């Protein structure tokens, strides 16, 4: 008897698309101030999980240090990554400033919590060299 087929949770299926899109994101607070404590990092993760869920995306991994956070996001092709980043940063900034006002004010001043820039890298698939080789092998002989 053959093993039962299990669907791959990394593959999203839509009406006209089958895909797997992952992004590694890194956000830093304004002026790279070390504002994060373990408690604030836990709350930041909760907020970002909620934002992702509302956008039909999934926060697969989250971690951070005092001066930055890392996210691994699995998202559908309908989601514009820059829009999702804006929501993640905007919503988390609002709640973290509100819930940890005294602590945050010691590290950050003004209206901004996050630096306006961020790091984003696509990930989750085969290395580029493997994909390039695969495409090369698809050439038809003349």
UniProtKB/TrEMBL annotation:
Entries under InterPro entries matching the protein: Transposase_17, Transposase_17_sf
Residue ranges occupied by any Transposase IS200-like domain in the UniProt entry: 18-138
Highest taxon listed in the record's lineage: Bacteria
Gene3D superfamilies to which the protein is assigned, alphabetical: Transposase IS200-like
Cited PANTHER family: TRANSPOSASE FOR INSERTION SEQUENCE ELEMENT IS200
NCBIfam families: transpos_IS200
Protein name (record): IS200/IS605 family transposase
The gene coding this protein: tnpA
């Amino acid at each position: 008897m053959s093993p039962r087929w299990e669907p791959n949770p990394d593959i999203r299926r839509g009406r006209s698309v089958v895909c797997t899109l992952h992004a590694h994101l890194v956000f830093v607070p304004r002026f790279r101030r070390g504002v994060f404590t373990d408690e604030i990092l836990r709350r930041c993760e909760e907020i970002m999980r909620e934002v992702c869920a509302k956008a039909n995306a999934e926060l697969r991994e989250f971690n951070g240090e005092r001066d930055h956070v890392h996210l691994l996001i699995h998202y559908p092709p309908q989601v514009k990554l820059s829009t999702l980043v804006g929501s993640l940063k905007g919503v988390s900034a609002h709640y973290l400033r509100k819930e940890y006002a005294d602590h945050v004010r010691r590290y950050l001043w003004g209206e901004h919590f996050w630096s306006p820039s961020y790091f984003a890298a696509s990930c989750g698939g085969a290395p580029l060299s493997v994909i390039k080789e695969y495409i090369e092998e698809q050439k038809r002989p003349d």
